[in-house]
Amino acid sequence: MATVTFDTLELVDRLKAAGFQPAQAEEVIRVIAKAQDELVTKRDLQIELAPLKWGMAITVGGIVTIILKSFFPH
Question: What's CA 11's distance to the chain center, in Å?
C-alpha cells in the first residue's frame, strides 16, 4: 500500500493557527494518518489485476477458438 509522509507537528500547528482547538487538530492528523493506510497506488492495482487480465485473455481466446471451430469444422 501507499505511504504518504508528512510532518504531523507542522500540520497540527497549521490547524491550530487556522482556529482548531489543540485536541481537534491532533485528532484530525490521527485520522489522516490512519486513512493513509487504506490508500492504493496505481502499482498496487497493476499487481493485483495482472492475473485477471491473463485470465480474461485466455477465456476470450477459448471462446474465439470455439466460435471458429463451429464455423470451420474438420
Answer: 24
